[in-house]
C-alpha cells in the first residue's frame, strides 16, 4: 500500500512538473506582455517629445535670427561673432522650452545646440544639436541638423555700413538711402559718389526665382526681378551670418543684390562704382557702366561691371 502510494505520488509529480513549467511560462509571457506595452508607451512619449523638440528648434532659431537682424536695423551695430551670439541665444530659448516640457511630463529632456554656421546653401543657416530624452531606464539620443531659411529676414549690412552717417529710412520692403550712401562712398574716396544720392535697395531677403541668372538679359525678367527686390546667389557676396557682422564679402557661399540709382541724364560721364551691394560695401571696388531701368513705372538705373553683366546676361 505504502509502495503503491509512492508510485501514485511519483506519477502525479511527473504530471505536475510539466504543468508547473507551463504555468511559469504563461506567467512569464503575461509579464513580458506588460513590459512590452509599458516600453511602447514610454518610448512613444519619448518619440513624440523628440518630434516636438525637432519641430521647435528651427522655429526658435528663426525667431532668434529675425530678432538679431531687427536689432541691427534699430541700433546699426554689427555683432562681433554672430554664430556664437545666435547659438547662445538659441540655447537659452531651447532650455526654457525643454524645462516647460519637463514640467508637463515625467521625461528628462536635454537639447544642446552644438553649432550655428552658414549653410552650404546661402539661403539657409545651419543649426546642429544633440537631443537627449529619458524616462526611467529608457532613453533616446540623437544628433539633429536643421536648415533654417533666411528669406524674409532684414538685410543688416546697409544699416551697419551707413549707420554712422545717420539712421537709414525704409519702407515696408525697401531701404531709402537718401544721402547716406553717397556720404559713405564719398568717405571711401569714390568718384561720382553723388550718383548714389537717393539710391534704394530691398530691405528683406527674397530669393530670385529667375534661374539661370543669364535670363536677366530679358528686359521684362530683369524689371520683374528688380521690382520684386530679389537677391541672388554670389560666391563673393557675404552670407547672412557675416552680414550681421558687417562684412560685405566672406568665404562662405553668399548673396548679392542690386542697388538702384535715380535716373541720370546722358550728358554726364556715366560710370561709377558697380551697383552690386558687395562691391559698394567692400574694399575691393570696381566701376560699372550705367544701364537705364524701369522700377515700378519710374525711370531708374544701375551701374554694372562686365563680370556682373555677363553673369546676368546683360549686353
Ligand atoms: Zn534676379
Ligand atoms: Zn559668411
From TrEMBL:
<feature type="transmembrane region" description="Helical">
    <location>
        <begin position="6"/>
        <end position="30"/>
    </location>
</feature>
<protein>
    <submittedName>
        <fullName>Uncharacterized protein</fullName>
    </submittedName>
</protein>
<keyword id="KW-0812">Transmembrane</keyword>
<keyword id="KW-0472">Membrane</keyword>
<keyword id="KW-1133">Transmembrane helix</keyword>
